[in-house]
Write a structure and sequence with these properties.
The structure holds two protein chains of two kinds.
Chain A: E1 4-7, E2 10-13, E3 19-25, E4 31-38, E5 42-49, E6 56-57, E7 64-66, E8 76-78, E9 87-94, E10 106-107, E11 111-115
Parallel strand pairs in A: 2-11
Antiparallel strand pairs in A: 1-3, 3-8, 4-5, 4-9, 5-6, 7-8, 9-10, 9-11
Chain B: E1 4-7, E2 10-14, E3 19-25, E4 32-38, E5 45-51, E6 56-59, E7 62-67, E8 72-77, E9 86-97, E10 100-105, E11 109-114
Classes of the chains: A mainly beta, B mainly beta.
Chain lengths: 116, 115
Amino acid sequence: IAGITQAPTSQILAAGRRMTLRCTQDMRHNAMYWYRQDLGLGLRLIHYSNTAGTTGKGEVPDGYSVSRANTDDFPLTLASAVPSQTSVYFCASSGSDRGIGYNEQFFGPGTRLTVL
Amino acid sequence: GENVEQHPSTLSVQEGDSAVIKCTYSDSASNYFPWYKQELGKGPQLIIDIRSNVGEKKDQRIAVTLNKTAKHFSLHITETQPEDSAVYFCAAVRVRGAGSYQLTFGKGTKLSVIP
């Protein structure tokens, strides 16, 4: 059971280049999320998707786009990378119905991105 | 929107001692409070959570307390072990409806357990 996988593990990117971070889950979870983690700032939500075919903006969406063509995949694209997008990016998914309205988020291992 | 403050940002304890991490939140409508543990090089993982209608919850060496009136909640780890060393994140969740919620993380606490 893989859970959530992310690719690449790490990447160094020149400013202005386009980059897509991949995220795949095999738990058939409806909801998926992208966070960035920066030292001293914790985890901040970039975009989310409650179900295949829908997406929404989080706290820091500017410069990023997402798509949700199917249940399993949720790629994050940086159309023109800038140095301030240097960060560790985590994908997460949730879907188990615990009957409380909030479902536990399961996180991937992360992608470390450096934009020069 | 919700604001979650977490303290301390770093914490060092001797093995066997207790560790306490505290969080406060601003939105009185938040009603669910998970705690995540992030080990080096890995993604965060849920370790314990508490609902707003409960004051305390315990799971072996880990416990969480919630004071709704004061809007603060705490993580308590007893008999700490080296494998407890990690970054811990608190979070506040406001459930708006079925499948719709807002989750806000604290900025994290780096816990170091010294053997």
